[in-house]
Amino acid sequence: MADPVLSLRDLRIWYGAERGAVRAVDGVSLDLMPGETVGLVGESGCGKSTLGRGVLGLLPEGAGHAGEVSFKGRNLLDIKQRELRSMRGPELGMIFQEPMTRLNPLMRISDHFEEVLQIHEPKIGKKEARNRSMEALRGMGIPPTRYKQYPHEFSGGMRQRIMIALALVLRPAVVVADEPTTALDVLVEAQILRILADLRRNFDTALLLITHNLGIVAEACDRVAVMYAGRVVEQGPAYDVTTKPSHPYSRELLRSTISLSTTELHSIPGAPPDLVSPPPACRFHPRCPNAMAVCAQQWPPTEATSPGRRSECWLHATDRIPVGLEQPLQREALAASEEA
Amino acid sequence: MSRGGSLRGYILIRIALMIPMVWVLLTTVFLMMRVAPGDPITASLGGKLSPEEVAERQAALGFDRPLIVQYFDYLWDAVRFQFGTTITDNQTIGSLIVENGGATLTLTVAALVVALVFGLPLGLIAGRYRETVPDAFIRVFAILGYAAPPFFVGLLAQLLFAQNLDWFPASKMASPIVQATAETHTHILIVDLAIEGDWEGVWDVILHLVLPATTLGLLVMGVFIRLVRVNVGQALGGDYVEAARARGVPERRVVSRHAFKNALIPVVTVMGLQVALLLGGAVLTEKTFSWPGLGSRLLDYLTNRDYIGVQGLITFFALIVVVISVIIDIVNALIDPRVRY
């Protein structure tokens, strides 16, 4: 088996807040193989986007981090800002959620492309930069005649394709796509997902696809990591996780997805926890239908449930639950505090 | 895709729209002058002449006709750029503008240069390094500059830099000898001197300019600094700036190319609005520094109740504001491709 191109080990990212640190990412370990698409799913506010930005070192001032983000054998958290900057683009790319505002309104599409190419490949000639950019755009279905136009002359879907072309023109080894289709309609969404799927086939680019849409994961990803309150609670092959989830949170999340056969909306009661003072032990226990007494007292172990699959839940380690703690969790008091 | 507007179309429409703007403006000036009690003849000669003679002179100037007739008469004159002759010193508004406009132009342009040269970088620094010590100093400086009235700042400047330190002359546009010997070409003294090759004279005018231009510049600089600061801060937090960082664009370039240019668009617009502030400030600054411009003339006419002079000069000032605002809109369209009709 090949070595992972990107590997997160016990990554922690927190933001300073007046009440205490907001632990947005709290001990995540995740591998990304060359050419692999890994979906990162979870509710809003679970730390997905922070994780994605953390990989590129794009965190706002005042954010702290610990752990390891190793890329091609080097820890990105240790290297100098200047060096990390020069890796953004040619090594690590990023695609954002809202394409409408991600291009500089005062710069032509051509200026955007020629700027990145000249920064990262200073020896490139003007003509070659032009050819490479047009080729990247053509790959995304943007005609070369529109190369000199301004961002406001394109639709949202086209702008997202331009953003993708702009990320790919340098052929990065890893691309983080942060909800790339959330702001677009379903037809354009399908188109963008096809483009992203082609991408790994053609360039061997590894893709970390951040989304809250499990349908996209099932369709576009090789593997999936489910995030809850800053932690990856389950990861494994996309097909297995989306058909037979092993963590109660993944199961509930999957039940909440809307499909054509949906007759009644399902939602997970409660809200994602406060990341300043998250619930003790398993973060999900206040909302978990399967919660046991142990879940509120001791960290659940991370268990390999099948090859390539891991789940952080006491349900898979029932033999190790201390005696007397396997009965269902009594939760009246908690429910009341949740209300406040 | 494109909404079909061309830059040329935009400029033409913008210029055509000046006509109704100027019309509203002329009407306002006319009505304001008529609302003020009395009329120019009574104000300046009342008591010195018999009522019959006053009425005679009023009739001669047409002030006894119905307001609507006077209004259309005034409009017709305005269309032909005829604003009449001042009562106190018998000058046409046209010759006034030619004689004194140069000094005001010199002062306001110099003030604008001072405001831009110092205001933009200071605003950029404050916006780039927000919530730091330099930012705090720059902000306080900006507020003081904006809040302090020009006649007060001007007096302090005269006291410190002219009286005590004797670095710069305290008043007037040039030394008497330079003023007296200058040949007239353009009625802009500094340009005339440059045409004559009298570089000592040019330097003399520049020395005279420093204090009034800085006084007036400070006023506008305060606005620029705060505006640039806010806009740079906003632009730096913008989506396309984060996207540029994600592509590995160096921070220096992110600031200069992506954030600063976008932050400048509102500044260009506000700069147009500042012309009014600049002209208003010029009136006070000119008086403080005995600067021989239109502003000090306007104050003279106001104190002497020379309504023809006041009316003519205010119309001229207002016209300038209109023309500049149109120019600013066009410049804006040149910078920002989204601005088109």
From TrEMBL, chain A:
Localization (cell): Cell membrane
Pfam families: ABC_tran (PF00005), oligo_HPY (PF08352)
Alphabetized CDD domains for the sequence: ABC_NikE_OppD_transporters (cd03257)
Lipid bilayer topology: Peripheral membrane protein
Keywords from the named record: ATP-binding, Cell membrane, Membrane, Nucleotide-binding, Transport
GO molecular-function terms, A-Z: ATP binding
Annotated family: Belongs to the ABC transporter superfamily.
Stated name of the protein: ABC transporter ATP-binding protein
The organism of origin for this protein: Solirubrobacter deserti
Taxonomic placement: Bacteria, Bacillati, Actinomycetota, Thermoleophilia, Solirubrobacterales
From TrEMBL, chain B:
A Pfam family: BPD_transp_1
Primary site of residence: membrane
Alphabetical list of InterPro entries matching this protein: BPD_transp_1_N (IPR045621), MetI-like (IPR000515), MetI-like_sf (IPR035906)
Annotated Gene3D superfamilies: MetI-like
Keywords annotated in UniProt: Cell membrane, Membrane, Transmembrane, Transmembrane helix, Transport
Domain ABC transmembrane type-1, residue spans: 101-332
Subcellular location: Cell membrane
Transmembrane segments: 12-33, 105-125, 137-161, 205-225, 263-284, 308-335
Membrane topology field: Multi-pass membrane protein
Family designation: Belongs to the binding-protein-dependent transport system permease family.
PANTHER family named among the record's database cross-references: DIPEPTIDE TRANSPORT SYSTEM PERMEASE PROTEIN DPPB-RELATED
The protein's name in its UniProt record: ABC transporter permease
Organism listed in the record: Solirubrobacter deserti
